[in-house]
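Feature request disguised as a bug: please show the residue count (231) next to Succinyl-CoA:3-ketoacid-CoA transferase in the output. Example input:
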Amino acid sequence: MINKTVENAEAALHDIYSNAVVMLGGFGLSGIPENCITAILKKDIDGLTCISNNAGVDDFGIGLMLQKKMVKKMISSYVGENAEFERQLLSGELEVELIPQGTLAERIRAGGAGIPAFFTPAGVGTEIAEGKEIREFEGKLYLMERALKADFSFVKAWKGDTAGNLIYKGTARNFNPMMAAAGKITIAEVEELVPAGELDPNYIHTPGIYVQRIFQGRDYEKRIEQKTIRS
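Example output, currently without the count:
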């Protein structure tokens, strides 16, 4: 069986380049590829198009990439936690495509499934529909959305094996599995890396066929985006 392991994030990202389209998995700050983002920050690249549900926060995740002016365009659903994102958007430094969350998920899933486009009612009659084809099905209007694919997909899993099979835990299953399928090169970082054959096939969320490189991550902060407590 092919061994897809690499030593660390730096080795996994050796060929990333300026102006690439990259997907970054996770939901908020849950299940984000922390090690890969750290490695990206060390690269002398810019002009990236980032596809992610969130844009991180000012001092963590994609927010750090925005601070370094590495991102040319963000394709996201929820961006309300990042002041630097807001500043770059309002100043015209950053191109932004906001997409309804379900539509974003389905566009990525379609990209991984080889489906070029699909029709959805979400966004009909709003700015989301501008410039897009609209058709009527059974008396209801739907707009056409195109699939999303990436040059590199960076995903984070709880456990993986040397063949690239992945298991996610909790909220990390939001966006990571579909992004793993939609990247030309998918790089997975995992909390625990085991030999091929040790994972129960019934619990694998991403088959190794979608993963080109895998490494065991380290020093995860696992930040909480918002903490609400009762006094």
